[in-house]
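Summary for the lay section of the report: proteins are chains of building blocks that fold into shapes. Here we show the chain for Putative P2Y purinoceptor 10 and then a coded description of the shape we predicted for it.
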Amino acid sequence: MGNNNTNSTKVKCTDLQMPFQYSLYATTYILIFIPGLLANSAALWVLCRFISKKNKAIIFMINLSVADLAHVLSLPLRIYYYINHHWPFQRALCLLCFYLKYLNMYASIFFLTCISLQRCFFLLKPFRARNWKRRYDVGISAAIWVIVGTACLPLPILRSTNLGNNTESCFADLGFHNISMASSIGMITAAELGGFVLPVVIITYCTWKTRKSLREFQVPPQNTKERKKALRMVLMCAVVFIVCFTPYHLNFPFFMMVKQHVFSNCSFIKSTLCFHIISLCLANLNCCLDPVVYYFMTSEFRDQFSEHGGSVLQSCVRCKENALEIRQRKEDLQTISLECLDDSKTM
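The coded shape description reads as follows.
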């Protein structure tokens, strides 16, 4: 009898409603959508078209921008759902949007790690960096997409329970499949070790080595400048990682245990679910913070964006001036025509 009461309490606490999540998610996605779309579109345009020198982690930046853009393009559907509380589209589209969210998260984690590692490696081993081939970065990027894409597949599958019977629900309102404790532990371990602990160790090591090299070596001024730029980039990657992905992964094991009905304390369960919602909103900020890495930390990107962005603005200004000139000429011609008609009537 006591066990039944405990189980009912767990279920009741696990099914706590979080009404604030709808407005919070909708507001977050609205604020992220336009800046994320414009920044990542511009970044992808500049990186692919105007930077011919594909070193200094440019290939990884292109892939990071693609990952961010894929998630940003799914945000209007998320905004629609969290405002209307209704999903009128197909089940597959719901699962695809759900999948893109986690694909973006873990692809961003690995590409940020690769950017930090490569900048640190090229800084400490400049002679080996000269022999580094572009195809190496392409191969590493392809391997990341395959690994991350495969590893994220269980996440939408895990949340697809009852989706076929209730097509109006999606995203945060999706239920959980009941899985064994062993499967849950395996998923938590893989996500935490592979998607959080290992990248944290690598980014921390790269930051430490880059700062150490800047302090210890007496180098020419131009090399010092290059080392400072490398340090800024590694530090920016660390900031994005800490702000966007650390809160989610600190809470993820507790969130999974809540869904497995491990805890019975309602206050702790409610706190865990609330923090899960907030951490997901923070994770989405990477779509706006990643372009900062390209613009402020890469001189090539900044120079090319300023040059070609200025050209585009100048072209727009010229087009506007030409349009105004054509309109003025039309008005002059109309005035002359009216004067000629008046003269003819007078005669």
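Put simply, here is one thing we learned. The two ends are 112 Å apart (CA to CA).
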